[in-house]
Amino acid sequence: MKILAIESSCDETAAAVVENGRKVLSSVIASQVEEHKIYGGVVPEIASRRHAEAISGVVKKALEDAELTLDDIDAVGVTYAPGLIGALLVGVNYAKSLAYSKGLPLVAVHHLRSHIAANYITHPELKPPFFCLVVSGGNSCMVLVKDYTEFEIVGRTRDDAAGEALDKAARSMGLPYPGGLNLDRECRNGNENAYKFPRPKVHDNELDFSFSGLKTAVINTIHNAKQKGEEINIPDLGASFQKAVVSFLCDNTEKAVKKYNMKKIVVAGGVSANSVLRKRMKELCEKNKWELFFPELSLCGDNAAMVGAQTYYEYLSGNRASLSLNAYATMPIEKDPPDCV
Ligand code: KG4
Predict the structure, then answer these.
(1) With a cut of 50, which residues of the chain have pLDDT below it?
(2) For the segment 96-145, what is each residue's pLDDT rounded down to a tens digit?
(3) What angle do the packed helices 179-186 and 162-172 form, to 10 degrees?
(4) What's the pTM?
(5) What is the pLDDT of residue 193?
(6) How many angstroms does the Cα of residue 215 sit away from the middle of ligand 1?
(7) Rounded Cα–Cα distance for residues 107 and 339 (Å)
(8) Euclidean distance between the first and final Cα of the chain, in Å?
(9) Distance separating alpha carbons of residues 282 and 166, to the nearest angstrom
(10) How far apart (Å, rounded) are the C-alpha atoms in residues 128 and 18?
(11) 140-147 and 2-7: which strand pairing?
(12) How far is the CA of 176 from the centre of ligand 1 (A)?
């Protein structure tokens, strides 16, 4: 089954053709990063406009690269939530018009489910059930993936997402957008024990995260140093901050995996590209003899190939969006897509 998938939830306009959920026939991404860089973050209105300009060309190229036409496509999958509402609407409306004009089934796909599905492409042998740490720019949570379309959240961030905290901390250190990526690159040789950060305390659920206090601690460290006329060593500060974030993610993962007695650990989302997280997770899983899965680097950030992978399983489970499908800025991963027939 050949699926044409579309993604426009943030600042990447992407389209891909994926066969049977696992084989990528083409994947095209038009990134807006350079344009948002001058503002230090994504400007939603600009993102929507650029998606509207790029989407036709991106879809056309995805079909050309796969050496297919729309007549060869069996279904259209599209990210409908969560994300920037204006950005999502561009992809949703484009997908609806394609599906309508060609009489194709339309499948509504949750963005975080797609991030998890990126792993099905990199690891053809991977099947649920497994435990997943989802860490992206807009979301951070721990999920029991019971089946391809059945999820249970066991821990989530109470405030900032891990990627958001990395981006904001990087920005306060004067590193360009996207901060998480640049922090990883620039602080590789920093001393991760140079600065001490407190472990955030989260009440009620020991598996939840909280990153806003850590982010504030970095900003305070920089302000205090400036007031005293002291030099800040950015590679050391960045490495220490990454260590604090990654330790929190790994410690909670360890607690949750033991609590739910899981053996397969999957990491997903943009922050899964982080070199420190990859190293620490590998050590953790080796120590506990757990199997570990990360997406290949090219599939960690937003792309449509992962949407195509998840679309296949959503289609098999009966997900058929109606032409009144809407976009949603927030939506729990567990919830079945609304606006379905
Ligand atoms: O998954 P993603 O592309 O977009 C969302 O769905 O949110 O994640 C983007 C996030 C940004 O916060 C970016 O800074 C972060 O992923 N990121 C990284 C790295 N590459 C991207 N964070 C840490 N280390 C990286 N190598």
Answers:
(1) none
(2) 999 999 999 999 999 999 999 999 999 999 999 999 999 999 999 999 99
(3) 70
(4) 0.97
(5) 97
(6) 16
(7) 10
(8) 21
(9) 21
(10) 20
(11) unpaired
(12) 13
CB count within 10 Å of CB 314 equals: 29
Distance (Å, rounded) from C-alpha 304 to C-alpha 27?
Answer: 7
Give 83's DSSP letter: S
Tokens of residue 285, six digits: 């899983």
**Token digits of residue 192:** 């991760």
What's the pLDDT tens digit per position in 4-25?
999 999 999 999 999 999 999 9
Pocket of ligand 1 (CB under 6 A): 10, 111, 115, 136-138, 163, 166-167, 178-181, 184, 269-271, 273-274, 301-302
Residue 242 CA: nearest ligand 1 atom is 23
**Most ligand 1 atoms within 8 A of CB, residue of 32, 79, 112, 166 to mutate:** 166
249-to-51, 114, 164, 171, 305 alpha-carbon distances in Å = 33, 21, 14, 21, 26
Helix (H) or strand (E) run with residue 120 in it: helix 111-122
Hunting for tokens 């050949």 — which residue is that?
2
Return the exposure string of 182-216: e unless at least 16 CB atoms fall within 10 Å of the residue's CB, then b.
bbbebbeebebeebebeebebeeeebbbbbebbbe
Across-strand partners of 267?
A: 133
Helix/strand/coil for 20 = coil
Both structure tokens of 166: 């990395």
Residue holding tokens 């975080």?
A: 112
**What does the block give as tokens for 258?**
């033991």
Strand 291-293's sheet: what is its strand order?
150-156, 140-147, 130-135, 264-268, 291-293
* Single-letter amino acid code for the residue at 50: R
**SS3 call for 31:** strand
What number does the ligand 1 atom closest to the CA of 9 have? 6
Task: Write down the pLDDT at residue 201.
Answer: 85
Distances (CA, A) of 139 to 4, 143, 186, 331: 25, 12, 24, 11
